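Aim 2, interim progress. The first record below pairs a target sequence with its structure tokens.
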Amino acid sequence: MVVVVAAMVLFGLVMVFAGLLGVAKERLRVDEDPRIELVNDVLPAANCGGCGFAGCSDFAKAVVEERAECSGCPVGGEKTAAQVAKVLGVEVVKTYPYRPVIHCAAECDQKLGRVPYDGVPSCVEADMVGTTQACTYGCLGFGDCSKACTYDALSMVEGRPVVHYDRCTGCGACITACPRNLIEKIPFKQDRMLVVACSNKEPAKLVKKVCKIGCIGCSLCQRLMGEQFKVSDNLAYLDYDNYTGDEDVSNVLERCPAGVMVYFGPPKPEYLEQLASDDTDPGGEQCVAAQAASDN
């Protein structure tokens, strides 16, 4: 009899708790907007983080909650933006694709003061050592950015990264991989965009000792085109809010004493043959060895 009573009490408790859980489920339930799943379905499922969110599902939720733009997926591009906008019943606001550029254009023979390096062939490791090259701002050339790119959109040529924009999704993995913060995403308002390909903030005298093409902060570009160019901390910058790519910058390019203004976009003709061959430097080791030998 005692066993029967205990079983009945236990059964009753189970039913009470089940009822309480049922009530709690209904009262505490958070209804998810069905559009989140619909938006997530049209995304490329790359989960690359290039949109600024942890993955596609987080981005879909942010778009529905109006915390992100329909055009925020760099992998999907305009096609995906149009599909997302259709799901939400809104118009796509035209935006420019943001693509990476490298603020260092120095090739092997232009980097001065390179020394033999026997450590781990990694930019992060070489940066920690700090004695691989005289320029403490420039590209170290070991290709961490190239290795981090899952889309095979970067190659190392003559000790510097070259971006294949036809493969680049703008995910930003290369930006995170660079220990010297040389890679930046800018709005590509044209197929080819002008970039100040230098990051050295030292005075001109010191820049000339470490690089053949480093910016010397002469302010000539600012005097010629003050709305587009600014000089701060001995380094020239392009204001991409004011620069559209339609401006005539030929005077700046011709008169820049360092020749540090370069266009990013389709590869330069002289790179095409190298990129098509197997002779590209995969990680900068050849550049370090060659430059050290030439310095000696």
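The second target in this work package is listed in the same format:
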Amino acid sequence: MKKHPLALAFGVCTLIVVLFGGALLLTKPGLRPQAFFGGKIAVLMVNGLIEQSQTFNEALIRLRRDDSIKAIIIRVDSGGGGAAASQEMFMEVARTAKVKPVVGSMGGVAASGGYYLLAPCSKIVAAPATVTGSIGVIATIPDLHQLLEKLGVRMQILRSGSLKGAGIPSKALTEAERANLQELIDQTHRQFVSDVAKGRHMKYEQVEALANGGVFTGAKAKQLGLVDLLGNFQDAVNLAARLGGIKGEPTLVWPEKKGGFWSDMLREQARLFFRDLAAELGAMPGLAFRWPASPLKP
């Protein structure tokens, strides 16, 4: 049977479009053929001071719902930060680890809140010299009342209760205020210990014995059961691929970057510097899971 010229031309054009489109996708930077078969591992970064959880949690939820992502690596290089933010990140990591493998990868430091959020990961990888642990809570409250007195500045405070305004820098803590804040810290500390115990499948008493705020090397943390494997980022990739059932070389999916490399890097480093400086000077509000502690702590 003789084919109609128009039908033949249409078929040829369709084939060209399909082949051209496929070639563009396959040659797109960062996208390999494995991506079409679901061999993808997503990488989430947590660097510097932890102040808010929204950006991290939103990204984690998207990755959890993406069926093409077979495993997730959370790369942490942080001494922690806000207690509530770290807890919220812990909760979302725990939910995600029930759906697909989540591997924690520790950089130079993954301590306090930086460790807290990794506790529920499927597995945690640390370098032998990584600084981790620091399971504890701190509240930094500057006391400036003597300085203000020397400057002749007097603050007038009106309040509705004897504990209202505890921690105002212009006045020293009363014994009742100190006891109230200490109880707040102790309650949050117990939450930290309990969550780490649940995340690591350890007994509460085991974690409590380690939770004096001290830090450990990655090698010591492995002996204590706080991490699972000693290695580098590539070891975390290999582990995530195995847990995710990926055969061959996986495709790593990194967070999208906007702007040029150098401008992004300088902007990020400046942001982290000023945030960390503010935290060291006691300007970070609320309770903190953070290492190192501020030199201005009472």
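Strands lie at 40-47, 69-78, 80-82, 102-111, 123-126, 131-133, 215-217, 229-230, 251-253, 288-290. This observation will shape the mutagenesis plan for the next reporting period.
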